[in-house]
Helix-turn-helix domain-containing protein
Amino acid sequence: MTDPPLREVFGKLLRRVRLRQGRTLAEVASAARVSAQYLSEVERGRKEPSSEVLAAVCAALGIDLPDLLAAAGRDLLAARPVAPVLRLADARIGRPPSIGRPGEVRLLVAA
């Protein structure tokens, strides 16, 4: 499975923040100095916004760009499937494999 394009992740996050604030596309677009049509395309993941546009929209929404980037990273990690991990101790006593957390690395050593 491949990660979705960042433009889609950013768009969903920006739309979620805007809707939570109860603001319209026109309000946020005006504050960010972009067209409402363009912001709509960004929110739907159809346009790849520049870093300057992302920063302007974040400022218009009153959020920090680093917070948007961190949230995008969390969303990408959460969307990844978690592969089952078989622990050696569990295998010896016939337990089913335990599930690790996304990004977790384990080393299995057989003696």
